[in-house]
């Protein structure tokens, strides 16, 4: 049996372009006795966060140390559970970590947008199903299919232990796609965890292949984002059409009333337009509204005259012969 190399540790310090394929979870430097003390402190901080935020889907905890402060970055699939209502939980977590370490702590939270292709979260999901007595083959196949649907280029799942409660422990695995473990520029995520069942401990390992880093240092996530947005041009310039102004309407000429001849008599009211003069009686009759027409009684429909019955026809007598 060959020796196995940790996929993430194998790629630490490997640069493609100006970027590293994988980075350390703890970013600090120490020597001598101080190194071992800080390492134990990191392990205790990670264990506390993983145990307390088990239902938040925490995949990774990064710790960065400066002269007088520790920055803890929590990568979680459900950041709302870590933060809590109005930041109560994250503030309580910060105070607890400060009491454990005796140093100033700053907590930052990053969301995992696709937990289905995060190796640690996939392994933890399979382990939870095994603890609930789900068939291990079914749990493995469902995890592989979910990773395939969410854009993974390859995934491998392996479980080891007393599978199904058998007396002899064995190893079972399932794979889809390709997982190039020897390609250093390949972005391979790796996660392992344990399922504590009534028969014993079952180990779960997951490898997820997301793609290769490009020669200029772009990660597979950045390449996929650029493919989803192929148009990288800037916003289009706004073209404004020149609309000629409409000509102002010409002022209407004032209406000059015609001259009225009062020699024939009649009535003229101020403010009334000029026109033909008529006597008062004719003028009021012309301006009065027409009288409504009197309603007419409906005419009954005419009925046809009855036809007199035809007179009866006299019976015909047979002719009499001579004797």
Radius of gyration: 49 Å
Strand order of the largest sheet: 3-4-5-6
- The count of helical stretches stands at 7
Overall geometry comes to elongated
Largest sheet report: 4 strands, mixed
Report, as a whole number of angstroms, the end-to-end distance: 153 Å
Estimate the strand proportion.
Answer: 15-25%
| Overall pLDDT score | 82
The total beta strand count reads 10
Q: Please estimate the helix content.
A: 25-40%
Class per helix and strand makeup: alpha+beta
Q: Give, in order, the helices and strands.
A: EEEHEEHHEHHEEEEHH
Low-pLDDT stretches are 238-243
Structure description:
By secondary structure, the protein is α+β, with helices and mostly antiparallel strands. The chain contains seven helices and ten strands. It has helices spanning 33-52, 79-83, 88-101, 119-131, 136-149, 220-228, 280-287; strands spanning 15-16, 19-20, 26-27, 58-65, 70-76, 105-111, 154-161, 170-177, 186-196, 201-212. A four-stranded mixed β-sheet has the order 3-4-5-6. Strands 8-7-10-9 form a four-stranded antiparallel β-sheet, with helices on one face. Strands 1-2 form a two-stranded antiparallel sheet. α4 (119-131) runs antiparallel to α5 (136-149). The longest helix has 20 residues, at 33-52. The chain is elongated, with a radius of gyration of 49 Å. The model is unreliable at 238-243 (pLDDT under 50).
């Amino acid at each position: 049996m060959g020796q196995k190399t940790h996929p993430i540790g194998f790629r630490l310090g490997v640069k493609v372009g100006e970027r590293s394929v994988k980075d350390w979870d703890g970013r600090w430097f120490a020597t001598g006795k101080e190194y071992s003390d800080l390492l134990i402190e990191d392990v205790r901080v990670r264990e506390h966060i993983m145990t307390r935020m088990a239902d938040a889907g925490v995949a990774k905890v990064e710790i960065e140390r400066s002269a007088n402060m520790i920055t803890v970055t929590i990568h979680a699939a459900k950041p709302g559970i870590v933060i809590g209502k109005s930041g109560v939980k994250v503030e309580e977590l910060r105070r607890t970590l400060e009491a454990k370490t005796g140093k100033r702590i700053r907590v930052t939270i990053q969301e995992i947008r696709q937990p289905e292709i995060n190796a640690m979260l996939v392994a933890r999901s399979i382990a939870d199903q095994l603890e609930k007595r789900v068939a291990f083959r079914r749990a493995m196949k469902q995890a592989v299919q979910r990773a395939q649907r969410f854009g993974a280029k390859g995934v491998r799942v392996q479980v080891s232990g007393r599978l199904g409660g058998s007396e002899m422990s064995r190893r079972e695995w399932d794979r889809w796609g390709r997982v190039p473990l020897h390609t250093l520029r390949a972005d391979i995520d790796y996660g392992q965890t344990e399922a504590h069942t009534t028969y014993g401990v079952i180990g779960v390992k997951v490898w997820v292949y997301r793609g290769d880093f490009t020669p200029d240092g772009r990660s597979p996530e950045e390449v996929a984002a650029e493919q989803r947005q192929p148009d990288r041009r800037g916003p289009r310039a706004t073209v404004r059409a020149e609309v000629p102004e409409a000509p102002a309407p010409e002022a209407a000429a004032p209406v000059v009333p015609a001259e009225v001849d009062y020699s024939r008599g009649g009535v003229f009211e101020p403010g009334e337009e000029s026109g033909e003069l008529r006597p008062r009686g004719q003028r009021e009759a012309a301006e009065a509204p027409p009288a409504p027409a009197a309603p007419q009684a409906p005419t009954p429909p005419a009925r046809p005259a009855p036809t007199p019955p035809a007179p009866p026809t006299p019976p015909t007598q047979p002719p009499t012969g001579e004797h």
